[in-house]
Every structure is written in structure tokens, then in C-alpha cells.
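Two proteins, back to back. First:
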Amino acid sequence: MKFIRTSTLLLFIACITAACSNDDKSDVEMTNGVALSVVGNAFMAEDDTEGITLHVLMAFAPSKNETIEIVMTGNEGDIVRMDHNTLHFKAGQKEATVKVLSNAKHVLSIPKTLSIRVGNTSNPHIKAADDGVKITITPDSDIPTLTSQQLQLIEGYKQKYGFDLTALLGKVPVEATVSFNTADKESYFKGESQATFKGFSIITLSEKATEETPVLKMVDNPMGLTSFFYDVLKRKTVEDHEFFLKQPYGNAIVQAIKYDAAKEQFSVTLDDIKLVPSSGKIDFIVERPNVYDDKIHALPFVYYFSAWERVKKLRDEGATVYIKENGKTVGYQVTDEFLLAGGSIDPLRWLAVSDVSRDTFNNSPSDWIEPKGNFDFTKGTMTFVFPWDFDTANGYEQVRVTYTMHRGK
């Protein structure tokens, strides 16, 4: 799906409403569109203390003081709060921020999706430019309890290699920056050259760890990119009204599973992160099959998408979906072939689809970067760089990730 820059959209709304060529009309007669966007991560655990930041942007600065109400729905039980829900814009001011903070009630057992939009304003010509944003609040970060065997391995690493691996376990701060290639920047990412995501990953010692090789598993928000992955997946499938939902197979599947954005769940894990103590490097690329059973080198992300789980259930039951063809309703059995023909919302079908060990796009200049990982207990960091793409991308996006180890470890 192609996206228009927020600022361009706002100016377009303002110009159309005011017939921009007419200089005699004052700004009070023009529709001043107000857009909301999430700054960085749209996911937050209920025990998170950082919050989610929203950016509020008017198409143009008002000539007098104005107020705008921000409305949140779906927040039954007061799971979160906004630091202020009435914004006071002074004359000449067109931007503001709102912080969504957890009330730390620790009551959620499943993720909760909230909607936030522009509400009442002090001026009838100041109106919402879009439907607002959605954020997801997840239950308290589930930090796995280390077994006695895992603790023994960790003690062994300390004796053998001189580092305390617990500095990288638990809830670890992460910052990820995704730099977009030129074509995708304009086509998919609102003209932005990059996006930055700050948050936390939950990391534990993998079951694949041995006495010689520490292996990590990221059980929540791996590489800090869960929110980004989910956003891209939805844009390419269940929320793509330009392509996916226009073709009959995709639309039929979405209708059959009764897709509900407010109720869906999405999560990601990442295993096989092997630390090499002798060099400080990290091996994190594996060979795996893609959805067409071709072998590719990739990061072994494992996705859970509740909507896709229901699609698989339809397939396993041999269910039938119905499509309009030439004025007639035709039934099709949900099979792997049907899904590959256009009905699949499998994250593996849409996310990270190309080999990352080599440049498969051959763009000039190349947008491929060599995957690398490093850890340094003296500096207190663990870093990754790798290329990443999605179905119909014009090239690789470049991902750079930095983890900050726990202090005092």
C-alpha cells in the first residue's frame, strides 16, 4: 500500500477546503486538519515505565489560541492514562505531544488494543484529518525463570570466559533504527528516511545453549521490532484496501475469519543467537525454507498472528469460502494452493522474504549490508546490523540494533 506523508495530506486537506488560490480568506474559514501519529513503538507492556508518545500535528498554525481534545476508547479498567487529554495550542503553534502511561494495575492476561483520536476542538474548522491511531498494551513482561541447569551454565561461562551473562537476560533496553531504501521510503513509509524504535526485549538463555556456547533466545519484542513488523504485515494484508483486499481470495479470507483489529494478537520470538566468546561476535543467521520451500539465509524469527491461526484452522478443516465471479457466487476450498494464490496472511509469506547473506536485489548503489553481531561486556552493549525486506519491496531496508546491558552486571 502506498502512503502519503502526513504533512502533505494535511496541506492537501487545507488547500482543497479553502480553495488555496483565494488569498482573501482568513485561516479561520479553512479546515485545519489535525493528524495523530505514534512516535516509535506502538506496543507497551503493562509494567512499562517509559510510555508511548503521540505526535499531534495541525496542517497550519492557528492565528489565535485553540484547544484540542484527545479521546481514548477501549481503556476499560483504566489500564493506561494520558498525561493530558486537552491540548492548549497558542497562536502560531501547530505541534504537540501526548504521553500514554501505564497505571501499573497488572490486570491484563491478554493484549488490549486501544484507539486514540482527535475529539472536540475549540474551533469548528479544526477537525481530525484521519481516524487516529491504535496502540497495544500487553500483560506484564513475562521474564522466564532460569532453571538450575541454566544457572549452572551461566556460572560456567563466568568461570570460563569472565563475563556475567545475566547482564543480557531479563528485560533488556533496546533501540532499533530501520533505514529505508529510496523507493520504499516514498512508496511505503510516508517519505521518512528512517524509523527508530525504543523499548525492551525479554531475553533468556536458550535451550540450545551448551557448556561451550552461550545461546540467547528473545522471547518478546526481538530486536525491538515487533511493532514495526506488525505494522508492515497489516499494511500488506488485512489493512491493504488498495491491493490485497481488492483481490477476491484475500478479501474472502479476511471476511471468513471475521478479522477484528481490536482483538487480534501478534508476537514474535527469535532463537539461535549464538555468542562467540573468543571473538565477541554473534552468529544469528540460519538457513531455513521460505513459504515456497526454497532455502534462504535469514534471521529465524517465529511469528504468532491470531488472524493467521484462524486461517490455518479453516485450511485444516477443509473449509469453503465464497467469491463473486462474473455475477455468480463460487465456493473455493481453503487449501495451501488457494492461500498461495492470494489468500495468505502468513507473516512468513510477507516479512523478511529474501536471502540476507548476499545481495539479491542488485540495486545501484547497493542497499544490502552484511549481517553482523557483536557483544562487549566492557562497553555494556550488544549490537546487530542486518538487511531486511518484505514482499514487493524495492530493495533491502537496513536495520541497526543496540542493546544496553543491565548496570552492575
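And the second protein:
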Amino acid sequence: MDFNFYPMIITDTIVKAASPPVQSYVLPVSNLDLLAGRAPVTYLYVYCKLTIDGSNSFIHTLKSSLATALNHYYPFASQIILNSKTGEPEIVCNNHGAKLVEASIDITLASLDFHDLNCSLGRLVTVNHDFPFTVQITKFSCGGVAIAFTFDHLLGDGSSFGMFLKSWCEIAQEKSISCVPDHHRILPASSPPTYDNSLDDTFICYKIVDSFPMLTNNIHHRRLYHVDAMDIDKLQRLSGTRTKIEAFSAYVWKILSKAIGESETHCKMGWLVDGRRRFNRKAGDVLNYIGNVLSMAVGEASVEELKQGSLMDIADVVHEAIVKTTSEAHFQDLIDWVECHKPGLMLAKILLGHEGPGLVLSSGKNFPVAELDFGYGSPVLGTLCPPMSKIGAGYMDQRESAKGDGSWVVSAMIWPAFAEALESDPDHVFQTMTAAHLGL
């Protein structure tokens, strides 16, 4: 693919909620929203060929069903502004609308480089900071379509966005929505707020006046990989009783230890942990919560331990790191930690890149992929598309492939040596994504 080739924008419209509330209102954000920050989060889906003669009906369906979906997820049609008194962002629910961009490219899907996101799929994304939710629909000459959904992280996390996209599809198919979203964002701090001091080892707060010392560590490769189901099963067998994601993490961490400088003696790995199932409340109230309910588990190991240890040994280290964050007490501590440190820019220290090489892994195992059917057929690919933003640690996202055969799609934002180590490993777990993997 030509590195200088970009899609041509056809139309740029704003879709508003069809039946908004009579009056606008301000939705305060929770402490865990503040911790998540305002980075763009993009999910990209590819549809081989629409089951209709043209795309006009498809576009009309998307727009009309989005307008209805925004009735149920009204904060997604909001504006985000900074409160001058508190120094914190607020979600102003005023039916500002969602931005919807239509574009086209005179090439076929099969001609795309599905491995190097910098040169292909990553260019099918629109980020507009005036709109917390943006959609870009790109039509290909073969009849295929790519849809990029970009959310402001302050609106929610992966679980929130997955619920929204699933509801949108149900509305497009004229079905009742299966999830009634909870927009209350009530995750209160304790009175007085208290927290375990170990959180100070994991998280840090920078006041607005502080400089923000984040290293980039040469992290600029955005890559997409296919992982076979049989390789995932093999890794789990080698890891004993651990879960698939723990076994996969152990393998990745071991490879990571081979891709860092000789002067490094330790390296870290982090995992995003969803807290919805950790709260001891009515299950439906928490599971349908729209907003951020994320923490960061962080593990550290010596390079020698990672190189010499078995997958079972490393998977045990992974498990012990993650399990520390899987309680209601941990999440309440985290809410209280933010309460004690705000206002300011709060984040996990591993993202700064100052404490040696690190990698953060996110699992989207429950995120809708094949289910993202707007009534015209299921996608052949659904993945998170990492943004080209300044980051001090590598990042990976894992989710089920659209095939439904147990294989995974893994997107990554990593440094060149790590990419080379993953792709040259003799076990060939990480296969560079190609059109053939998608049946194109």
C-alpha cells in the first residue's frame, strides 16, 4: 500500500439523539473516570461485503439507529468541558451530537496491509476532540466497508463501549436492547478517604503546573497479529492451571525479556482489570454501569527469571500480580487514592517508561466482535486500533477473532526490537495478520 495514500472524505455530519431530554444537564465524572483520562479509544471493524446492492441504505440505517441509540446513551452525544472551579472535566449532556464521517478509497480490502497499522487501517480513523464520540465509515472499491468507532476515554472503558455498540446493533436490527445502561456514575469515596499505601507504588499524580516526564522509548510500531486457537491451548497446557490470558501473558513476558537492553535487569508487565464484578452490589446495577471501572495490576520480574523460568513459573507470577486487584477493597482504595490526590493528571507509573521497559496488556475477551452486525452481515475483523500517542510502555490488546474458532486478534503498539522478537520466535505464536487470515 502507498504510504502516502489516505481515504477521501465524502461527507461530514453530526448525528444527534432523536429524543433528547428537555433540558441539558451536567454529569459529574467519577474518580475512576479521572484516572482513565481523556485519551481517544478506537475500535476498528472490517466488513467484507454488505448484503445489499449499495451502501446508501447501510449509511441511512447507521445514522437513524445511532440517533436512537444515543437516546439510551445520551452522554455519548455530549460535550466535555473543564470546570474552572474544580479543575476537573465534566460531561455536559446537551445533545451536541456524534460526528459521523463518510470516506472512500479506490482500492480493495484484500490489497491492504493488515499487519502494519501505521500504513493502513490506522489511517481510517477520525479523531475530533470537539466530539467525544466519532465514527468514520470508509467504503472500498470491492464493496467492503471499514468502520472506526472513536470514543473519549472519559466517557467509559471497553465494557461501556462494548455495551453501547451492541445496543446500537440491536436497534439497527429493530430488536429491543438487551442492556439497560446505568449512567449514574456513583462510585463514591469513603469518608474520610483512606487507601493502602501500596497504591503509591503503582500510581502517580502530576499537578497541572508540573512538567509531565513521559519517555517514548521508541514505541511507534502499531501492529496486528493473528494467534491460532491451538497455540493458545498449548500455552495454557504449559502453564498448568492458569487461565488463557495468564498463560499468554507469561509467553509474551518471556519474549519481552529478550527484547530489552543489556543494561536492564528487570522489566514490568501491567494488566487492565475491570472492577464491575468485584463490587458487592446488585449484579445488574454494576454490570451495566457506563463509565470507567478499571485498575492496573503490575508485576515485576528479573530478566534472568523470565529467560530461565518455565511458562508455568511465569504464569504464577502473572496470576499473583493480577489477583491483588480483584477485590472490592482494592477498587475502593483506588477511588479513595484519587480522592486524596485530585486535581491533577493521574496514571499508572508503568506508562511513564522511567522504571525500565514495560508492557500493558488489555483483554477484550467479552467485547462484541462477530456480534457487531448492523443488519447487513458480520465483520471479518474487529480490533482495537492503538492511537499514535506519546506513551512510555508498550501496549497490547487481545480479543476473540470474528471467525469464532477460538483464535485471537492481537493489536500492539511496541518498539522495533520487541516486534522483531515476537515475529522471529520459533514457536510462531504471533502470526503477522494478512488478508488470507480474514478470508479476503
